[in-house]
Design a protein that fits this description.
This protein is an all-beta fold. The protein contains one helix and 28 strands. The protein has one domain: Methylamine Dehydrogenase, Chain H (7 Propeller), CATH 2.130.10.10. The strands form seven sheets. The chain has a four-stranded antiparallel β-sheet with strand order 1-28-27-26, with no helix packed on it. The radius of gyration is 19 Å and the shape is globular.
């Protein structure tokens, strides 16, 4: 299917290793709402602004717009809500329609395109990847089915920082690299032995590389040009759910059901730090779901099964600095934003208790 977008056209892709990802415009600063209301207690790094209850089923993913003060929340109720942090209102709901063009299955992940800010992508239990113009609410593409698309539930999505390319991770043990303007498959990465839950591009510094996290307890670094695994990272002892890359720090973070967060150095592919959240929380059963670096790489947030978000200072050896939230169920995802006026960091969670929580850093 054809997706009409504004912006540079993805270069023609020839035989491997011909995936051409050139230098482009870096994504803009992430911005969010300025809604400071009350002073925080001494010692609090973040204050809760509000709890957001806008879904009828568990919220599984959340993403912050790079240009607008909105977050996108993706739910098992098969909708995405675009929510304005300043006005405390839903700007638009994507999905939920009975029309075949707009109807989606339960949603597992959502992300904004970095090169074409009007485009939003999401992944579903119905084996499809959906692209929307979130400014107009218009569906752009439904990618799936056939021999090239995913053959099972699609768990994760990420967009490249400078080209119109995205990657999606699936229970079918594959990660697919797509040209999202043309709606075509560029590469399929197939060496995983179990379900793949997440994938992330490694920024401009390593523009040909994509990292994946898998239920076989391994993190793989692929060179998209020839689909070869250039590094295999092994430390976790249970399913790996979350993965994120910090361009500012040159680090990969992985979160696992084993309760640990592993920090990997992308220059050496060695384990740099291992964070035991079960010790920090004094909870022997805590599982780490998705993880997210702040834009400057100085903080790391981890969504946890215990109903909270754990925040770590990454300026040196990781230091636990905050336990946020008292969700009634698992927190599965968390995203960062930056206030455009105060530059305070913001956090928004996605929880299976059907809510999100919104915090602001106290400056």
């Amino acid at each position: 299917s054809q997706v009409n977008t504004k912006g540079p056209v993805v270069p023609t892709v020839g035989p491997a290793p011909g995936l051409q990802l050139g230098v482009g415009v870096a994504p803009g600063a992430i911005v969010g709402a300025e809604t400071g209301k009350k002073p925080a207690a001494d010692g609090e790094r973040f204050q809760l602004e509000r709890t957001i209850s806008i879904h009828e089923a568990p919220v599984h993913s959340v993403a912050m717009s790079t240009q607008l003060n909105i977050v996108a929340t993706a739910s098992w109720d098969a909708t995405i809500n675009l929510y304005n942090l300043s006005t405390d209102k839903i700007v638009r709901t994507l999905g939920g329609s009975s029309s075949a063009e707009e109807k989606m299955g339960g949603l597992y992940a959502v992300a904004f395109s970095k090169t074409v800010p009007d485009i939003l992508g999401c992944t579903s239990c119905d084996k499809n990847v959906y692209l929307w113009n979130h400014q107009t609410g218009k569906p752009l593409a439904k990618l799936g089915g056939g021999q090239q698309g995913h053959q099972d539930e699609v768990n994760g999505i990420d967009f490249h920082s400078s080209q119109q390319v995205m990657c999606t991770a699936s229970d079918d043990k594959k990660v697919i690299i797509w040209d999202f303007q043309e709606g075509i498959v560029l590469r399929t990465l197939e060496t995983h032995t179990k379900a793949v839950y997440g994938s992330t591009f490694l920024g401009q510094e390593m523009q040909y590389f994509v990292a994946t996290c898998c239920f076989d307890m391994k993190t793989r670094i692929f060179d998209m040009r020839d689909k070869q695994v250039v590094a295999l990272l092994q430390e976790h002892t249970d399913d790996i759910i979350g993965i994120d890359y910090s361009s500012a720090k040159g680090l990969i973070a992985t979160g696992s059901d084993d309760g640990n967060i592993c920090i990997w150095n992308t220059r050496t592919w060695k384990l740099q730090h291992k964070i035991n959240t079960r010790d920090d929380l004094k909870n022997p059963d805590n599982e780490v779901k998705r993880v997210s670096f702040s834009p400057d790489g100085m903080l790391l947030a981890a969504a946890c099964s215990s109903g909270s978000v754990q925040v770590y200072d990454m300026s040196a050896t990781p230091k636990h600095i905050a336990k946020l939230g008292d969700h009634k169920d698992c927190v599965f995802d968390v995203c960062w934003g930056i206030c455009p006026t105060t530059r305070a960091k913001m956090l928004v969670s996605a929880s299976h208790d059907r809510t999100s929580m919104y915090w602001r850093e106290v400056l």
